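Aggregate trends can hide what the representation actually does to any particular protein. For completeness, the protein is quoted in full, as a sequence line and a line of structure tokens.
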Amino acid sequence: MPPTKTTAPGPIRRPREAARKKDEAPPEPRRERRALSHVGGKVTIQGGSEEEQAALTHALDVSADEDEVMQDVHGFHSYPARLHPKTASRLIERLSRGDARVLDPFCGSGTVVVEARALGRTALGSDLNPLSVELAWLKSRGVTRKFASDLVQAAERIADKAEERRLARAEPYKRYDADDRERYPIHILLELDSIHHGIFSLEHNEPKRALRLVVSSLLTKLSYSEGDTTRRKAPRRLAPGFAIQLFVDKTRELAERLVAFSERVPPRTPRAFVTHADARRLSYVEPKSIDLIVTSPPYPGVYDYLDHHLHRLRWLGLRESRLQDDEIGARRSYRRRRLGEAEDLWVREIGACLREMRRVLASDGRAVMIVADSVVDRRALRAVPALERAAKENGVDIMAVASQKRPIFLHGAEEAFHDAPREEHVLIIRPGRAPIQRSFGKPSERRSEDSEARPRSRFDDGRPTATRAPAQRGPRERQESRDRSPERSRDARHVKPKSR
């Protein structure tokens, strides 16, 4: 692949920091916030059976090793706050049977859906973000070598035409607004214009969808932005024709990744079903039809996925209105709230999701939810006490919680966690048969454990807290028979797809 920088002559945009005097102190270094760059550590477990404790410990015993994090399709396209592929795979393997139906109602870029298919499960996923739906669809579908070859050939034809237009100094197919002209070097914007037009001129829909995502994966690298989750500018010195060649190279890489994933999928595994839906209204799923849910909802007040992906959505021609109106946990919704108001909002938002999970889970099904503590109003919003409130109000039982320390990325937020560290939590949840009777601790209540303060919850009931080393245990075979009713509607076909 060509280098991202060359010594070719041409204009270069420099940020204001470039004009800093030599004797001026350099700025404070930014804290690294890359997806999956901070994982692992001691696992503290509360509640759960031996099987569940072993599953949680094994799932969290992961590293930031690039071979694991970027395996086949997981290495295509950046996405903030991704779930570690090994964590998803181990949870699915330990907590479900081979013929299980696995759902992720916050599927993001498709990690759970991909790993469920790789284990031979029937995989379903949905998200309110249309970019997420496209990514999860592409990464989980599996392709033939012929499709991969045809995809590369289509990209090469588009690139040839774009190169002809570049050499001819052709006018763009459309006028671009000030945001686009300021975001990209002008010659790069013209190359993207030709590529974009070529993709949307394709006759068949699947190659068109795939190549749109190739362009999406390049936009940050070709722009003046330092990354997906920052507004900082970075200088770019990109040679003429760079975007065109990078488009072809990235398509070849995608084709290889898709084929590699296809080889991981067992024969006769059903195709994944991925759709655009709100996690509070899973109308495409029948009641009591899901064996396992593995999901990581947006952490309250941490990210604003609309802001991160709005530019991509518009380049891809995807509508953002539902994400703008209904995004759960969005930073823009929590930014000006007091801590109590923010927690109440989170309990309402995630509570509606828990209620829908209860509806779709089989009587012996389980949900696994990955969440983390966050900061609102300069104070810590503790995830577990808030989820306990939501669970109690919506008829589900939290059976186990596993926690690991996580760094604090927000400058100045250390004081919010002065009494207890920030943690990420994995919770096992089951449909409740009756309202929970035990009392719940308030987020402000604290207790001392292992010389470290921790927020009080219903799990602080005198039972020992287990810190376990990784153990090798197989999944428990559940003996209860399941109701396999025939398909009764168009949506039901997606819940119980036929094997290929």
Summary: The chain has two domains: 44-132+272-470, 144-260. Residues 44-132+272-470 form a domain with the Rossmann fold fold (CATH 3.40.50.150). Residues 145-167 form the longest helix (23 residues).
